[in-house]
Amino acid sequence: MGNPESFSLFPDTKKLFPRLTGSVSSCMMASQEMRAEIKMNHEKTLHHEEERLQLLDTMQELVCIFQMSGNFVYANRLWLQELGYAIEDLRGNAFPLVLDRQELSKWKKIKQRLKSESFAYVTFTFRTKKNESLYVCGSLTLISGADGMPQVMGVFHNAAVFLSERRDWERFFSLAGDLLCVFDMKGRFCRVNPAFESVLGYTEEDLIGRPLMGYIHSDDWISTKKKYSQILKGQLQTTFENRFRCMDGTYKWLSLTAYAFLSEGVFYVVAQDITEERNAKERLKQMAFTDDLTSLLNRRGFYFFANKLVQLAVREKKYFLLMLADLDALKAINDQYGHSEGDAALVRSAWILKGRFRVSDIVGRIGGDEFAAALILDELPDLQKLGQELDRLVQESRLLDAFPYEPPTFSIGFSYAHIGHRLTLEDMFEEADRMMYQEKSTKQRLRTA
User: Fold this and answer.
1) Residue 429 falls in which region: left (phi positive, over 0), alpha (psi -120 to 50) or beta
2) Quick one: 214 and 248 in the same domain?
3) Domain check: are 273 and 294 in the same one?
4) Under DSSP, is residue 416 helix (H, G, I), strand (E, B) or coil?
5) Which residues contact 16 (CB under 8 A, 6 or more apart)?
6) pLDDT above 70: percentage of residues in the chain
7) Residues 158 and 213 in one domain
8) Which pLDDT score is estimated for 446?
């Protein structure tokens, strides 16, 4: 046996596992360095926290910080001065300590909001240590504490100095003829004045907390969202128009000017009802585009909307069909029965054409006795049958009304284009016009034969 003095239950690990021993030593050194770095970062954080609190102490607003549970963490010098508390009074107490009892339900709601939102604009009535009321307005903001845990920072203004100004504002808000409303930064109603209610039919309770976009006409969503985005990006004032749904389901046009107060988390909106003005403009537009006698589109209106239809046909890769229809023998009716009867023949013809085509098709009276229709189709119809169908509808109209003359028929011309065709609307008019007058000439030769 060997020397018993050299035997050990705990052999020298450096000799048995030299590599492992080196690795352990390296890990221990790294761990010490990590602890040193963590300690240094913690000291830096504490230093920054001290600097932040020193800065808050110099602010001219009432500032306090508390945990999500409500327990106080900090109150600045002005806050302690205005409310009459010492910092020792706040230790172990929660924010509701300083609230008026009537404000406790409001605080519960705001506390619930702060769980999902990082900012809330608030007004409170505080109770000082002497049990006096102190009306304040300001904001609650979710921040990260020195330990990384969420905290709430309140920044308030003593509102007592401008209570009289507030009363003047309330009087103005209530009596203003313009529609006044306040939104939070998520676009939800916070308040509306009586004029807003009377014009649109909603009570304030109907709107508070609801999103503005829920009342905007769907055609105005994109333009309204664009303006809202501009406010969020820092534009302090913007003006726009949109249609707002009333309580009775109708829509009114509003002209709105929004003023953003990002520090308060709200924007104020002043609006005027411009429904009559917009309707008047629409009537003028219709007058410019509408034929007075038949209520169909006039030549200008037909060209405008037909060009839109051409663009749609190109986008959807469909056929575009143009039809011209000239009313036969209108001059003879005017000469024999008078212009009033000739006008009646034009109105009946317009009624026949409008009834034959779809709502999505464009129908107009583009001249004295000349009509036009424009439509987009997946496939071309039998154009000869379409002309025969119009003749049949003319004959059937005799059953609905008594005519002192044979109902005038149509001379018809067509032109069509498909994706890849380079025809313009003017080219198609010329082609359809040639075809229409060829048919008209053929009818005249047959009548005189």
Assistant:
1) alpha
2) yes
3) no
4) strand
5) none
6) 83
7) no
8) 74
pLDDT in tens, 35-58: 555 555 545 555 566 777 787 888
The pLDDT-based confidence of 172 (bands split at 50, 70, 90) is confident
Q: Which two tokens stand for residue 18?
A: 């030299």
Instruction: Decide the pairing of beta strands 179-184 and 189-192.
Output: antiparallel
Query: Tokens representing 144?
Result: 């990260």
Rounded to 5 degrees, φ, ψ at 425 are -60, -35
pLDDT attached to residue 394: 77
The CA distance from 307 to 305, in Å, is 5
Tell whether 113 and 187 lie within a shared domain: no
Host domain of residue 266: 176-277
Strand partners, 183: 189, 267
pLDDT value at position 12? Answer: 46
Q: Are residues 366 and 407 in the same domain?
A: yes
Domain boundary among 162, 194, 222: 162
Tokens read off for 16:
């048995």
| Helix or strand run (H / E) with residue 42 | helix 18-57
Cβ neighbours of residue 123 under 8 Å, at least 6 residues apart? 135, 136, 137, 138, 159
Q: Which residue in this structure is represented by tokens 């046009």?
A: 253
Q: Over 80: is that where the pLDDT of 275 sits?
A: yes
- The count of domains in the chain is 3
Residue 44: inside a domain, yes or no? no
Which two three-digit tokens encode residue 414?
A: 């067509």
Q: Answer yes or no: is 75 within a domain.
A: yes
